[in-house]
Specification:
The radius of gyration is 57 Å and the shape is elongated. The chain starts with 6 loop residues before the first helix and ends with a helix. It has 75 helices and no strands. It is mostly helical. The C terminus is likely disordered.
């Protein structure tokens, strides 16, 4: 350390050193830092003295200056004495004597500055002797030893109390006097000291007596505490603690009870820090280990109680158990030993010493201390006091007075909270120590909750700075912790206090549901395991819940409901968990449980919502049944419960809806079941496939009609619940996301979720997803306000392209938006101009439509490839998708039905004598109001529909552009509009059928109604097979409505003529574009239309039978559903009905054991079909057919491939010529070949379906044969097409199906005849080409002759063999399907021409003749007379064609020309003879009918260069020559044995036909000549033919 006295000062001491030193000392003594100043002065004095010792300074100089310095500080003499002490020790060790002398002189010189006593304390006895302060150092040493011994080792002998009791008596008198005056503790202390001294009292006993008196006078804290504090200065610090410990020990024997006064004294002394807790704690019992053991024992006991409650105990055991329990309880009631630690803790809490109390609690297991009621209550009281000012400021409810709580008199108690921040510092901590035991003080519970409410109000108002916000966040998380650890567990321990539950809800409802559910989750799954008391409570709750649930029935809902309510106030999570587990097992509990929940509090409802979600999300539960084909019943029960409970009670939905959305995001659609139930119950919107037609009709009306007649259950009073659902969706922005997720999930079900699942389940899930989307969309459309809806749903292109919503769903969501838009625009325009004329209104409506729909027309363009818009316009597409049934038709009958119901109700009310008059009046008013609403709604809808129809009238000309072909247009229309929409919902199915009819009625250009219907009915197999169960049902509805229209037209000529006769949709010549107002001749007439309808029925039968025979689950199920739906209109024809019945009967037998659901469907359908049987009619009543000749005419004709398609086959050629669309057709054919091939084969190959079909077996063989030939003919076919203008695919379409039906022959004849007339001039060149090719085709035809002959007279046998043949044919069909690879097939679903196109040229003669006849006579049979001429022609021609393949080309041409000329002459003659011969015609009609197709088939064969139509010629061949009948019968026997012989028979046929052709080739030339003669001699031939046919009959 640096020297404070520089050497210069010593050298120049007198000059300036002395004054410098004095200044230094003054400066040092004035230093504010006492420690530093003290040390520095010590050093300065030491250095001065040392200079004297060394001889640098004289001792008198030093003593002088020290005399000056000594006044600077009070303790300067003491400092100087310290310095002398140190120098004494240092100099005594030195050898230099002079230094020691200098020291002695210095001390002697300074004796006047330092007192003798101080020096005697500090200097060595020898030094003192040398200074003369003591006489002898030795004596001095001895004396000090004696004094020390006396002081430290000799005990004072006090007299005992009995000897000197006066002192103690006086002491007690001193302490027990009235202390209210001016007596202070200091005064008393002095007296006590005097008493101790005077009477020689033991100070420890005195202290003990002071404590005893303090115990008795606890109110005098202010006196005794300072007294003890002062007294303790005279004692050892530990003494007080030992005395207290001794007092506590006195009470520690088992029977002792520590008085509370002692606890209080100890507590006060602790609070004033007069003793240490650690010192006292060791004196208290029981030890900490014992406490921990006791806590563990409590937990084990609680668990045993739980085990006993959950055990099933038999009645005999029960009594024993109860006795044992009683004994145990008696043992327990014996008083437990005193716990002094808890007693002290209670005292500490009572006086408000939270710091020490907390320390004691920390030594014990959690909540052990507060589980003792006294402590819990004391702590509650402390909290009451601490929160008082804050509670008075923010917590007291308006109007409540409350009882203020006074603060503790103790200044050392915790500070009272004035703000939420202060609340957090102390009170939250106290509450955490309380835990579930806050239940002991419901009032404090309510206060804490109210403070929480007040805090949340402040927390949610945004006016605070960033720092405050952070503080608030911290406070909020603390509040959540308190709720979790204190409030909810305390509620569990409270005794069913509904008010507390409601109070708590006041705070809870301010939390977002995510926080609430988190708290409920902790409460349910963790809190109950944290404490033995809660473990017991949980077990008791479950036990009680079981008791209630066992007895719950519909009859005792009220009493049981009260019990449930009582139980739920405290332990809702446990109770609901049990109730839900029961509901999942027994769904019949749902209704009584829902009804019994009416006594719950709001908090309990919220907890119920959480418990439901937790049950739904339970990962241990399987969502599918073990068979993996159906959704588990527990999930269905829960969903049903959800719907009912959310509807009936005001429970928040957000959590549940978010859960469903999250599941959808995760690609799981099972939980949509819940959404479906909730929307159904809350909004009253049902989704069911089982709607009756009446309900469906009602659903096409306005909202009121829907509510009255559209639903099964009249779901009433849904206004509030649907509002709640709407609010939940809008507040949490879930409306659109749920829609989009559902729309996307539909495909997700199939492609992602479906993965390994059973097809049946995938279908179910798809249906559920789709139905829920439809239902949910319907809810949004009807409940959201226009603004809300428009704000949330994006435009159609955004929906489809950005959100990848399927088009049908996207339009479904947008449709209400368009309707809203249009109506609001319309209203605006109406207001702007007040013109009341209907025209003005319509005009405004159309304008508003254009304004709204124009952007939509633009938007839809991006949804499909540009090529699509070549055929249909975006406007048409948008119009189709944006309209609904409400826009197209008014369900007058529904309105009438509902109004009549109301009238009946009103009459019943009038007749009811018991009803009180005021109620009568109310009911009547309700009915009248409803009636008026309905009528008003009907009127409104009528006006709306008229406006829409006007709008469509204007639009229709731009709808179908038909830049390619009408067939393409229909394809696009079906593909993009009809099919996607008809399976969207039941109403959409009806809408699609109506829309098709509407487009027809509007006379829309380029729309072929005939084609459209044909495509719909022709090939339903693929459509049916790819549907889910509900889609099949909707598709069935669609077909039903389509059939209804067709049946109406079919039923009456007048209706047909009125609705179809002159409409462009029934034109049979289909030009590429435009409708030139074609002749009457181009229209399909009524009789032919009936044939076409029969063909459609036949097609449906064929498809149905095919599906039923596949054995595939989906095919069978779907076709049965479709058939059930179309029962009112199909089957109408007896033989088709019988064929179906057989198939369905077979299914019933096969599936009875295997697939019970199919069995049930089939049985259901079978029963309904039987009941329809009386209404079925024979085929000849369904469309004109002549009775078959007994032998000559086999029954084949009835159901063989017929002529209905013929007209189209002929028109095809003209169309071809006009369009020149050969290449396109090729492409189309190739494209569609694969698709339709199989169906057509099967369809063609199913003559077995018809009962009257005579030659089905032979047919099937022929078909096989034909297949082989077809392959070779394919190449030629292509060449021909290049040369001959090809027919439009549509017409091929119309015709090809005709192969299957002779019934439609007439249509063909008429149509062909018409066409030939038109076509004759054009077709000269064609004829030449045709003739060239005839030769080749004839060779092939000759092979088929034999088979034709064979096929003729097998009718009777076939009828007998029908059942066996069906089985064979089923097999054959499959083989045919495989074999028919070569045949060219037109576009899928198109009508197919029954006869190949190219035959037309040869048959023109007959066609013209026929044409004239058909149109001149109203009845179809009028053609017969002229046809008689043809009969021989055609039969001859058959022979010629079959037998002369070697005929030269030039001769063929000549024959052709002559034929043409003669046919023209004949047609003129025929018109004249027409009237005379009507009767004859009727007789012979059947023969002629059957011959004509023969000619045409041959011709077509020649033109195509293939034997593609050999099938027709065979199956159609009428009895050309009755002579062949016998042969045929013989052959038939061998043939009918079925498939086994099929191949060998083919071979035989080939041989026979080839040999036949050789033999007959010679006659060819002769026969052509004979034929010409026959033509001229028509009349005679006719008569002969009559005779021959009569013979056969």
């Amino acid at each position: 350390m640096a020297a404070l006295l520089p050497a210069e000062w010593i050298k120049n001491w007198e000059k300036g050193g002395k004054s410098e030193f004095v200044q230094l000392c003054r400066a040092l003594s004035e230093n504010k830092n006492h420690d530093v100043g003290f040390r520095d002065i010590q050093q300065a004095l030491y250095e001065l003295a040392y200079h004297v010792v060394r001889g640098n300074l004289k001792h008198d100089q030093a003593s002088n200056v020290l005399g000056d310095v000594i006044e600077f500080r009070e303790d300067m003499p003491s400092i100087l004495a310290d310095v002398f002490c140190i120098l004494d020790i240092e100099t005594s060790c030195l050898e230099e004597k002079n230094k020691r002398d200098h020291f002695t002189q210095l001390v002697l010189a300074c004796l006047y500055l330092v007192s003798d006593t101080v020096l005697k304390e500090r200097l060595d006895p020898e030094t003192l002797e040398s200074l003369g302060l003591i006489k002898q150092s030795q004596q001095f040493n001895q004396k000090s030893v004696k004094i020390k011994t006396k002081l430290f080792y000799k005990q004072q002998k006090f007299n005992l109390l009995r000897e000197e009791n006066e002192g103690y008596a006086k002491l007690i008198a001193e302490l027990g006097q009235d202390l209210s005056g001016n007596i202070t503790s200091d005064l008393i202390l002095e007296n006590i000291k005097s008493l101790i001294g005077c009477f020689n009292l033991d100070p420890n006993r005195v202290l003990d007596i002071i404590l005893e008196v303090y115990e008795c006078r606890p109110e005098y804290d202010d006196f005794f505490v300072p007294l003890i504090e002062s007294y303790m200065y005279m004692c050892e610090p530990q003494t007080l603690c030992h005395i207290l410990g001794f007092k506590f020990k006195f009470y520690q024997d088992p029977s002792g009870e520590t008085p509370s006064s002692l606890y209080r004294v100890a507590a006060v002394l602790l609070q004033h820090n007069l003793i240490d807790l650690e010192d006292l704690y060791v004196h208290l019992l029981p030890g900490d280990n014992a406490i921990i053991e006791e806590h563990k024992r409590e937990i084990v006991e609680a668990k045993q109680i739980v085990r006993k409650l959950t055990m099933v105990v038999l009645s005999s055991e029960k009594t024993e158990e109860k006795e044992k329990e009683k004994e145990k309880e008696e043992e327990k009631t014996e008083k437990p030993p005193d716990n002094q630690k808890l007693g002290l803790l209670e005292a500490l809490l009572k006086i408000g010493d939270w710091h020490h109390a907390q320390s004691i609690m920390d030594q014990m297991p959690p909540f052990y201390s507060t589980s003792h009621k006294a402590i819990a209550v004391a702590l509650c009281q402390l909290v009451h006091v601490t929160i008082e000012p804050l509670y008075r400021r923010v917590g007291v409810p308006k109007g409540a007075k409350g009882s203020p709580i006074s603060s503790l008199p103790n200044k050392r108690a915790p500070k009272q909270a004035e703000s939420f921040e202060e609340l957090r510092k102390e009170v939250f901590n106290m509450l955490c120590y309380l835990g579930p035991h806050l239940s002991h003080d419901p009032i404090l519970f309510a206060k804490v909750v109210r403070l929480g409410k007040a805090f949340m109000k402040e927390f949610q108002s945004d006016g605070s700075k960033q720092e405050d916000k952070e503080k608030m966040e911290t406070l909020f998380s603390c509040l959540l912790s308190i709720t979790d650890q204190v409030l909810l567990p305390s509620l569990s321990l409270m005794d069913c206090n509904a008010c507390m539950s409601e109070e708590l809800w006041g705070m809870f409802k301010t939390f977002p549901y995510q926080y609430r559910y988190r708290l409920y989750g902790q409460w349910k799954n963790e809190t109950y395991n944290s404490h033995p008391l809660l473990v017991k409570v949980k077990a008791q709750t479950i036990d009680r819940a079981k008791y209630i649930m066992k007895r719950l029935t519909k009859e005792n809902v009220k009493p049981s409901g009260r019990q449930i309510g009582k139980l739920s106030h405290s332990n809702p999570t446990i109770l609901f968990d049990y109730i839900l587990s029961q509901i999942q097992k027994y769904d019949n509990l749902i209704t009584p449980v829902v009804d019994s929940l009416k006594y719950l509090t709001s908090l309990n409802y919220d907890v119920l919502a959480y418990c439901i979600i937790e049950a739904l999300a339970n990962p241990e539960k399987e969502r599918m049944k073990h068979d993996d084909t159906t959704i588990s019943s527990w999930l269905q029960s829960l969903a049903s419960f959800c719907g009912a409970v959310f509807r009936k009670y005001p429970i928040e939905l957000a959590g549940l809806l978010q859960y469903v959305a999250n599941q959808l995001k995760a690609g799981k659609s099972f939980d949509l079941l819940i959404l479906k139930e909730v929307v159904q119950k809350m909004a009253g919107i049902e989704i069911t496939e089982e709607m009756t037609m009446e309900q469906l009709e009602a659903m096409t009306g306005g909202e009121q009609l829907k509510a009255e007649g559209g639903y099964f259950g009249q779901i009433r009073n849904t206004k509030k619940s649907s509002q709640r659902l709407k609010d939940a969706l809008l507040d949490h922005d879930l409306a659109l996301p749920l829609c989009l997720l559902m729309a996307q999930q539909r495909n997700g079900v199939v492609f992602q979720e479906g993965g390994e699942k059973h097809l049946k389940l995938v279908g179910k899930l798809y249906d559920q997803c789709h139905d829920t989307l439809v239902q949910f969309g319907g809810f949004l459309a009807s409940n959201l306000s226009t603004e809300d809806y428009i704000k949330r749903v994006p435009s159609i292109d955004v929906l489809c392209n950005e959100f990848h919503t399927p088009h049908d769903a996207a339009f479904f969501l947008s449709r209400p938006m368009y309707a809203h838009h249009i109506s609001s625009k319309y209203d605006e325009l109406k207001k702007a101009e007040k013109g009341n004329k209907q025209q003005h209104k319509v005009h405004k409506y159309i304008t508003s439509c254009e304004l709204v729909m124009a952007p939509v027309h633009e938007a839809v363009i991006s949804l499909h490839l540009p090529k699509v818009w070549d055929d249909i316009s975006p406007q048409f597409y948008a119009t189709f998708w944006s309209l609904t049934m409400y826009d197209l038709a008014v369900p007058h009958s529904s309105y009438d039905r509902e109004v009549n119901k109301l009238k009946v109700q009103m009459k019943a009310i009038d007749d009811n004598q018991e009803m009180p008059p005021n109620k009568k009046k109310k009911e009547k008013e309700r009915c009248t109001a409803l009636q008026d609403k309905l009528l008003e709604e009907e009127k409104k809808q009528l006006e709306h529909v008229q406006r829409v129809l006007q709008r469509l009238k204007l639009e229709k000309d731009n709808w179908l552009l038909a830049k390619s072909t009408k067939n393409e247009t229909i394809t696009k229309f079906l593909q993009l509009c009809i099919f996607p929409r008809c399976i969207f919902s039941a109403i959409d199915a009806v809408y699609c059928a109506h829309f098709v009819e509407l487009v027809h009625q509007q006379k829309t250009p380029n729309f072929s109604t005939l084609l459209c219907y044909d495509r719909v009915f022709s090939d339903i197999i693929y459509t049916v097979a790819s549907c889910t169960e509900n889609e099949a049902s909707r598709y069935g509805r669609f077909l039903c409505c389509m059939l209804e229209t067709v049946t109406r037209w079919h039923s009456d000529r007048v209706i047909y003529e009125k609705e179809c006769g002159n409409y462009p949709g029934f034109l049979t010549i289909l030009r590429a574009t435009g409708f030139d107002g074609g002749n009457k001749a181009d229209q399909l007439d009524y009789e032919n239309f009936r044939h076409v309808v029969h063909k459609w029925h036949y097609k449906l039968t064929k498809a149905s039978v095919h599906c039923l025979e596949t054995g595939e689950y989906t095919h069978i199920r779907n076709i049965l559903i479709v058939l059930t739906k179309i029962l009112p209109w199909y089957p109408k024809v007896l033989n088709l009905g019988q064929a179906l019945e057989r198939r369905v009967h077979k299914i019933c037998q096969e599936e009875k054991e295997k697939r019970p659901d199919l069995y049930a469907l089939a049985m259901g359908y079978s029963g309904q079909l039987k009941s329809r049987k009386p209404f079925m009619i024979p085929e000849n009543e369904f469309h004109h057919k002549d009775p078959p000749a007994r032998n000559a005419v086999p029954a084949t004709v009835q159901n063989g491939p017929g002529g209905a398609g013929m007209p189209t086959s002929l028109t095809i050629n003209t169309v071809r010529l006009e369009e020149g669309a050969a290449e396109e057709t090729d492409k189309l054919k190739e494209k569609s070949q694969g698709v339709v091939k199989v169906i057509n084969k099967t369809v063609n190959a199913t003559p077995k379906v018809t009962t009257s079909n005579g030659n089905s077996a032979s047919n099937s063989k022929i078909i096989k044969e034909k297949d082989d030939k077809e392959k070779s003919g394919k190449e030629k076919d292509k060449e021909k097409k290049d040369k001959t203008p090809a027919a439009t695919p549509e017409m091929k379409a119309l015709g090809k199906d005709g192969k299957d039906k002779p019934k439609e022959e007439r249509v063909n004849k008429d149509e062909k005849a018409r066409e030939i007339k038109e076509k004759t001039p054009k077709s000269e060149k064609e004829k030449e080409k045709v003739k060239k090719e005839e030769k080749a085709s004839k060779e092939e035809k000759s092979k088929t002759v034999v088979t034709i002959i064979e096929s003729k007279s097998s009718a009777e046998k076939e009828r007998e063999k029908e059942p066996s043949r069906e089985r064979d044919l089923a097999k054959e069909m499959k083989s045919k399907e495989n074999a028919k690879g070569g045949e060219k097939v037109p576009v899928a679903g198109s009508l197919k021409s029954p006869v190949p196109r190219s035959e037309t040229s040869e048959s023109e003669r007959e066609q013209k003749r026929r044409k004239v006849d058909t149109h001149s006579s109203p009845s179809h049979s009028s053609t017969v007379k002229d046809n008689l001429n043809e009969l021989k022609d055609s039969s001859a021609k058959h022979y010629i064609n079959h037998t002369t393949p070697t005929l030269s080309k030039s001769k063929e041409r000549e024959v052709e020309k002559k034929d043409l000329d003669k046919s023209r002459e004949r047609s003129r003659e025929r018109e004249k003879k027409d009237e005379k011969d009507r009767k004859d015609r009727k007789r012979d009609h059947s023969n002629n009918e059957r011959e004509v197709p023969q000619d045409s088939t041959k011709r077509r064969k020649e033109e195509n260069g293939t034997t593609g139509s050999s099938k027709h010629s065979k199956s159609e061949s009428p009895s050309d020559s009755p002579r062949l009948n016998e042969k045929e019968k013989e052959k038939n026997k061998s043939k009918s044995s079925g498939k086994e012989k099929g191949d060998s028979i083919k071979a035989e046929k080939m041989e026979k036909s080839s040999s036949g052709s050789k033999k007959e080739s010679r006659h060819d030339k002769e026969k052509t000549e004979k034929k010409e003669k026959r033509d001229s001699a028509g009349g005679k031939e006719e008569k002969k033919h009559h005779k021959s046919s009569d013979k056969h009959r």
